[in-house]
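Honest question from a wet-lab person: if I give you the sequences of every part of a complex, can you actually get the arrangement of the whole thing, not just the pieces? Trying it with mine:
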Amino acid sequence: GAVVSQHPSRVICKSGTSVKIECRSLDFQATTMFWYRQFPKQSLMLMATSNEGSKATYEQGVEKDKFLINHASLTLSTLTVTSAHPEDSSFYICSGNGPGGSYEQYFGPGTRLTVT
Amino acid sequence: AQSVAQPEDQVNVAEGNPLTVKCTYSVSGNPYLFWYVQYPNRGLQFLLKYITGDNLVKGSYGFEAEFNKSQTSFHLKKPSALVSDSALYFCAVRDSYAGNKLTFGGGTRVLVKP
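Yes, you can. This is the full assembly:
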């Protein structure tokens, strides 16, 4: 149980274009979802926290107009990287609070974004 | 503020030997502690957690961890390592006073040699 999917798993886009990444909780409802980015050989950095039906809360230093987050339902959150640049290339991982009030987060498999 | 430290970037161990991955934490309130494992180009898999109760918690794949309040540590252990345990391990903490955000340690790469 507690499976999270992400789509796409890999995406290559040109500089200046926008990319949307989907995060779905498949067998549970996630009232809160989290978006992280991970650089090679580094830890996860929290970008934002999103609660279903409300605006996301962004971490310090994360541009909310560049990284648009929508959490329209209890099973779907999306991250849109707008006007992507090569420095946005990274591994993006989402997670959801586990079912039934569990304390742990369950993570998606990640999306590798490469901006050329 | 909450923080996590994993003092070792890499741990090498021979297959069949005990494996320990170290983690220390700092929180204002009570700590909720977690271990996750990451395989290449994959998301994180939950291994185990400490919320309250017994200091020794058992998790997936034969892993266990011991919560030590006086030393503010939560080291991950496995009595007999397998080559397939080679991966990147992350310790994470959530402060009971600080909502539901996780803070991750820098990660420890485990290499189990046959």
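Two things worth pointing out. Chain A has a mean pLDDT of 92. Chain A is about 0% helix and 55% strand.
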